[in-house]
């Protein structure tokens, strides 16, 4: 299930796109289906190998258009092994909440994005995440877990300023272009898990709600689609922010919600 809206991101066939923190590859696969030149980037070599295998399977099954390319790259988000301005589009979905040096990671994303390119960043939304933290310390104390809760203002500020030089002089200040919310049906699932124990997957309420989410993902029934549209702006678990790198090196930050 996608978090980022690829139509809003603006990906076109043949464009080079980075999925930073690709994980299991859900956004990388969608970019490949749309004809992008895709790099799935992550620090988990085993996960990337599975993503690579699925790229091959997609190509063999004809799920990606002719000319589309897809590969994987292992590395660290704080030092991306790519040239300045190498990518037309970048997705960083549910990654920054795990990274201590988030500003450095954001600067790297801005660096490898071409002028005029677009960036989509998703993180857990403030209110659903606060509820999770209050219900269960185990939710965020786990190794590799979430280390911060973002407000939209904080993350917008960090990204729009990320292209400026360290001395404060103008650089490629990113332009904020708007936000969405996603996965409204998923927030209650995590509230239940945090209430009964995040590792307690056998609890009847957890099992029942999990079946509902599997039904949503696999069958996409109309009723749940409509429920999601109603719940996303209210309790959507994920917040998605969209940015554009200005064509000029001294573009000014701004934008609309």
From TrEMBL:
It comes from the Bacteria. The keyword Methyltransferase applies. Residues 18-121 form the Methyltransferase type domain. InterPro entries: Methyltransf_11, SAM-dependent_MTases_sf. GO terms for biological process: methylation. This is SAM-dependent methyltransferase. The keyword Transferase applies. Keywords: Methyltransferase, Transferase. One of its GO terms (molecular function) is S-adenosylmethionine-dependent methyltransferase activity.
């Amino acid at each position: 299930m996608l978090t980022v809206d690829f139509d809003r991101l603006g990906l076109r066939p043949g464009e080079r796109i980075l999925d930073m923190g690709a994980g299991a590859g859900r956004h990388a696969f969608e970019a490949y289906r749309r004809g992008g030149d895709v790099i799935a980037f992550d620090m988990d070599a085993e996960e990337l190998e599975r993503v690579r295998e699925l790229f091959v399977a997609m190509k063999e099954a004809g799920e990606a258009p002719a000319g589309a390319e897809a590969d994987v790259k292992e590395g660290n988000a704080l030092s991306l092994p790519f040239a300045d301005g190498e990518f037309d589009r970048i997705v960083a979905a549910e990654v920054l909440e795990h990274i201590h040096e988030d500003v450095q990671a954001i600067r790297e994303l801005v660096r490898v994005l071409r002028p005029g390119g677009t960036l989509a960043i998703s993180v857990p939304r403030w209110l659903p995440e606060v509820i999770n933290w209050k219900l269960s310390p185990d939710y965020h104390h786990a190794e590799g877990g979430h280390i911060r809760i973002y407000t939209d203002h904080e993350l917008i500020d960090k990204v729009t300023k990320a292209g400026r030089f360290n001395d404060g002089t103008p650089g490629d200040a990113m332009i904020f272009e708007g936000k969405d919310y996603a996965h409204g049906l998923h927030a209650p699932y995590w509230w239940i898990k945090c209430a009964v124990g995040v590792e307690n997957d056998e609890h009847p309420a957890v099992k029942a709600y999990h079946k509902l989410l599997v039904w949503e993902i696999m069958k996409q029934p109309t009723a749940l689609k409509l429920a999601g549209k109603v719940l996303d702006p209210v309790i959507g678990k994920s917040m998605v922010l969209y940015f554009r790198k200005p064509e000029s090196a001294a573009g000014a930050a701004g934008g609309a919600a």
